[in-house]
Amino acid sequence: MAAVELSLEERVSLLYLLWRAEQRGKRRPCLHHLLQELRLDDGRFQRYHRLSLGQFEDLLSRVGPRVARLDTNYRRSIPPAERLSICLRFLATGDSFRTIVFSFRVGVSTVSQIIPQVATAIWDCLVDDFMAVPSPGDWQSIAEEFQERWHFPLCCGALDGKHVQTKAPPNSGSMFHNYKGTFSIVLLAVVDARYRFRVIDVGGYGRTSDGGILANSTFCQALQAGTLHLPPDQPLPGGEHRGAQPHVFVADEAFPLRRELMRPFPGHLLPLEKRIFNYRLSRARMIVEGAFGVLSSQWRMYRHSMELRPEIAEKCVKATCVLHNFLRCLDERGAPAVRSVAPAVVEPLQSLGRVAANNSSREAVLVREKFMAHFSAEGAVTWQPKE
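The structure assignment produced for this chain is given below.
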């Protein structure tokens, strides 16, 4: 059989195709060497991924089956460990996709697909164990911890919102433009006495106030309808003569005063009793500020304006919140207690609205006055007048 004569261009093309086929059949040397080197030093591994080696392996065992892909006749799939490493590196740094590309030797389109896929898998695989909707017993335990640690009785959580900077979507106008002059989505969170997120709502428009975000949330609807299953009303410690009081959430002045939602008294020249109440409430409310601080320090994507579409940014925010609980639970207990209940995230509604902070019911005003009187009498602490 006569040999076929190939031109120079055809020979170069053939050699290139053979080289590509060979490379596709090989393992990814960059990741292989990178992870192997990091595994030798747990400190460097933790600085790179924000998780220790043991925590990484635990997380990989949970999300690995969800993010694994099948090999084909043309190429081997990217291993689950590499997919998880890519996502964690982005959450830990907020680097651009091109920086991630240079580190892992993959394409930009590959990274843009892996990050939302893995972030979604992290949320789906961890939410039932680490951010489940609190039961009545859980709410009671949270209230007892707030009383023990922060001297605020009948408190089921601290509530606040955080603006997460992102780029404005095309044709969105001022929808995501906030009062700080940037574009953002809003993370609304309820935090317990141990700095853990118990309920989150992600995706509110940046232009909407915290009160408006609360009004548009399913959490607020459940709070108004009484379907959060909060514990029954109880007397304040040592204040049985004041009658049974509701369990409440504490928030700042951006939120409305309601029967189950306490906010500080407005103004500066206040009587001593009101100043004491504001101080005690602020002391408990700062827990949510601390949780946001730990979150943004651990996952530094919050320190940059994310070049992501809002729906992708929401997935990343939810992933970091449940990872925050994952790390805190492992540090505190060594192993989590597994419960199969509904997720605690609440999806934001599409309608917008504002809440007038001064439109409070008479019942809410009376509840706040009972707490104020309690803090200045039987609930007083020895060091509060100095503050």
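Interim note for the steering committee: Residues 131-386 form one domain. DSSP finds 13 helices and seven strands in the chain.
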